[in-house]
Amino acid sequence: MKTGLACRGLGVKLGNRWVLEDLDYTLESGGIHGLIGPNGAGKTTLLRALAGLLPLKKGEITLDGTNLASISRAQRAREAGYLPQNGSCHWPLPVERLVELGRIPHLESSDILGSADRDAVRKALEQTDTWDLRHRTVTELSGGERARVLLARVLAGCPRVLLIDEPLAGLDLYHQLQVMELLQHIASEPGRLVCVVMHDLSLALRHCTVLTLLDRGKVLWTGAPADLLKTSRLDRVFHVELQAFHAECGPALVPVRRLDA
Amino acid sequence: MKSGPTLSPLKLSALLALLLLSLAVVSLGIGEVFFPPWQWPAALGGPESAAYQSILWDIRAPRTALALVAGAMLGLAGAVLQGYTRNPLADAGILGITGGSSLAAVLAIYSGFAVAWPLGLPIAALGGGILTTLLVVWLAGRGGDVQTLVLAGAAVAAFTAALTSLALNLAPNPYAGMEIVFWLLGSVKDTSWNQVALASPFCAAGFLLLLGTRRGLQALALGDDAAATLGVNLSGLRLRVIAGTALAVGPVCAAAGSIGFVGLVVPHLLRPWVGHDPGRLILPSALGGACLVLMADITSRLIPTPSNEEIKLGVLTALVGAPFFFALIFKMRRTLP
Questions:
Q1: Considering Cα of B272, then B278, then B284, then B287, what sign does the dihedral take?
Q2: Which residue from A minimizes the CA distance to B230?
Q3: Domain A5-258 adopts which CATH fold?
């Protein structure tokens, strides 16, 4: 049986515009799969489609060979966790309560948590370095603290598939590394599928196992990070001249100047 | 800063239920005849038992029951709608349902239908509520998104308010106009058991539907997308919210007129005590709403007025509600940077 989350001939329309057109993509286990590309390339749309949030105009998405649309809502919620971009919380909930909401797919009644649920919440708080924040009010946290708490919410559900949109936005350097290492650790567990939308190409090169370059709703390139630098497409896709430095920890990409189209 | 004091939802509900029970007893004991519970056994067993029984059972009990049901439904719907729209200013009025009920009731008074048949008014109001709900559902479309629903509700509410004003404007004589205005002010005075019996089954169904939104409202705190990936059926939740609100609030509006501010204020008051959790707020808000309306109704019987006409319930709840809003604004100003 085919394992992984795959889409074939995917077409998604938002309004009158095709945001994704005839797109093939496969998310497999073993390491982080990074989605990169300029603004408006369709990274978030692809991630939302994989999360089952969008109606598909064309093609299909399968999880382990089963059509995603035929899997029940509840089952899907247990299998896949999705972290939206710039997530927020609408009520001033205590941090711990917010992370507990990540257990909703596993609960009979959304208020009664068993010991397994409590363990998962505790682990998620510890992994994201937010254990000490657990009694604070989420709306009073800094942007970076809130981003980590929202990530903890997704991790608390212990989903096999993690779909994460720009987890590094607003994080300081320390916590950027911490989140990437944490995702790498999770992605190394057998059977886990981890797809992350990233803007920092250097961190993507260092921490991802597979990178997929999107542009204008299509997959331009996919492969191992080490091979990405060999393609000359990056400059043209991002409209920026990029310079690569080879540090001890891995390659670093620095934007030099804008290229006008 | 730590989050504020919280009670377990069960403890809070138990406290509110206790308060509600005592208020209900007070409500049965107070009126033109002061009749406290310790006199009940003697009076009901005494020579004038029929008169006392009539005061308790035919006059005060249905009034108390309606105040309780009305408050519970308004508080409940307010909590659910605030959680659903994630807007602390929402209440049952934003879906246009109370506006539709009021309009139909006004038309029933206007046309004389209300006089011709004792239950004509509540049944017309109920029908008006259902019709406007269908209109809102049709306008908002099939999707699951909150914005279009709020817009549709606001549009329908504005339209029914305009038609209600038109009816007042064209009222054939000042008495009809007065009657319409008094009805719009909201009251549980002179309630009959028939009215309570007519409203109760609908309210019970609405109550159950709205209680079931708990999990959905909690997930929605994280936004639509996150809620959907947590397994919430957004269009199903929306239908449940609309149908539940229509069933719970429509009959209340039909029996007691429009009682404002309860659905707005009660969830606000109780929210800090449940740690701002929109799901845990639902049941306490129902109990708190019942307490508030009972309190207001008891107060309306105690305040002397020059005309000897009781102050209308809707006036009292608004009188209490508006200053509460002032306090809320001051509090918000303090917490803003």
A1: positive
A2: A77
A3: Rossmann fold (3.40.50)
